[in-house]
Amino acid sequence: AILGLMRLNFLSVLHASDIELEFVAAIVEDHSRKLHWGHGFGLHVTLTRPQSRGEVRLASSDARQSLLIDPRYFSHPDDMPRLVKGVQKSLAIMNDAALAPWRGKMLSPISADDPAGIERELRRSADTEYHPVGTCRMGPADNPAAVVGPDLRVHGCTGLRVADASVMPNITTGNTNAPSIMIGEKCADLLRAAARSSSPISARSFA
């Protein structure tokens, strides 16, 4: 895959790219659950800075039971217009004359001149890009939405840290893999520093 980032809204306070374009040399639909044989290519459009916020809840006190996950896509009014613009930009790229020799029919025909049609298609088919964050977000202890502090320790717990994308209070512009590795490395540094500063254990401690 080849990735590209675009910033569509230059008046936004985010000051960051808000659309990711992913060019793939494959025909992918519904996360490849629906197979298409033959040659083809695609362009996936991702909203990198969504303002919508989902939720993860416990289904019961039974830890073996699956969680209740509701991503609440498009629950914020700013998300749909930005993604529609991103799709319109992607259609302009795909309809460029340079791609004419390889361009075939679209799996879901939509037109850049029909934003309402694009919105209908997005509400029908938009799905995850596998980069959720923020379920254990970082913040001060007096913030009811915060789970961990800057040292990755869980508020109100002893000996428990979280070191993955769930601690991010806001999602990054691009994919979350590299930032997650950085969080893990930072946690390792914190653990090493804590081990160096702790008092040595004497043999009498085990008596």
Task: Walk me through the structure.
InterPro entries: FAD/NAD-bd_sf (IPR036188), GMC_OxRdtase (IPR012132), GMC_OxRtase_C (IPR007867). This is GMC oxidoreductase. GO terms for molecular function: flavin adenine dinucleotide binding; oxidoreductase activity, acting on CH-OH group of donors. Residues 50-184 form the Glucose-methanol-choline oxidoreductase C-terminal domain. By secondary structure, the protein is α+β, with helices and mostly antiparallel strands. The N and C termini lie far apart (60 Å). It has 2 domains: 19-125, Glucose Oxidase, domain 3 (2-Layer Sandwich), CATH 3.30.560; 131-197, no CATH class. The strands form 2 sheets. It has a 3-stranded antiparallel β-sheet, covered by helices on one side. It is built from 3 helices and 5 strands, in the order βββββααα. The model is unreliable at 201-207 (pLDDT under 50).
